[in-house]
Amino acid sequence: MRNRMIMLALVGGLTSSAWAQQVALSGLSGNRALLVVDGAAPRFLSPGQSHQGVKLLSAQGDSAVVEVSGQRQTLRVGDAPVSVGNTARSDGGQRIVLTADASGHFLPQGQINGRAVQFMVDTGATLIAISESEARRLNLKFDTGRSVRITTANGTVNAYQIQLSSVRVGDVQVYDVAAVVAPQPMPFVLLGNSFLTRFQMQRQNDQMTLEKR
After folding, report:
1. Where exactly does CATH 2.40.70.10 map onto the chain?
2. Residue 8 pLDDT
């Protein structure tokens, strides 16, 4: 997955050369854990074995404990991938630089309320937009949100407007961000203007720079 994603760099001086790795627990067989690292093919590991820098410490029941760069993390079957290990940092987490993919889209990985998501920058979206299935995976209580009507490519549909506790891209995090949860499936979480307007945006060729206001 890493090779298919855009490169995201935090400007202002990196204090670590390694990215946090996205690790998910796909299944268990006895004391062996089936791990997915950075979206690559699943790999069975026994306690003490390592794969792409991820070491399995133990596996029991529906959970496993892994270690990356000295940092331990407990994973559970069915949970979203979590970031483990060193994270890229910038001075104060103020600026994000995104590079477009071959199709011209900006597709940063990030987090909503601490859970990993795949964003697509959409400057035409008023709010962050999340599908209902993704909202359930993120454990968002969207059905208690405000009922709204939104216009999509397939017409006008009912949706729910909610507030996200936190939204993070790289080392930059903002709080109390408005979002809308829509019924139609979406391959990405749309990173709309409720997040983007917290930044000054500059676009040059295939790079987008977001400077925190």
Report:
1. 95-212
2. 28
Phi then psi for residue 42, to 5 deg, are -60, 150
Integer angstrom CA distances of residue 82 from 11, 78, 144 = 24, 12, 26
Residue 142 DSSP class: G
- Rounded CA-CA distance 163/26 in Å is 30
Which residue reads 């959970």 in tokens?
A: 63
Asked if 210 and 197 count as a contact pair (C-beta separation under 8 A), the reply is no
pTM: 0.58
Question: Using CA atoms, how far apart are residues 194 and 192, in angstroms rounded to an integer?
Answer: 6
Specify whether domain 95-212 bears CATH 2.40.420.20: no
Helix (H, G, I), strand (E, B) or coil at 191: strand
**What is d(CA 44, CA 50) in angstroms, rounded to the nearest whole number?**
10
- Domain 21-84: top CATH class: mainly beta
Q: Mention every residue, 6+ apart, whose C-beta is less than 8 A from residue 47.
A: 31, 56, 57, 58, 59
- What pLDDT is stored for residue 160 in this prediction? 94
The whole-number mean pLDDT for each consecutive block of 10 residues of the chain, a chain of 213 residues, reads: 29 33 83 83 90 88 84 80 50 77 90 92 94 94 89 81 92 91 92 94 90 87
CA distance 162 to 159: 10
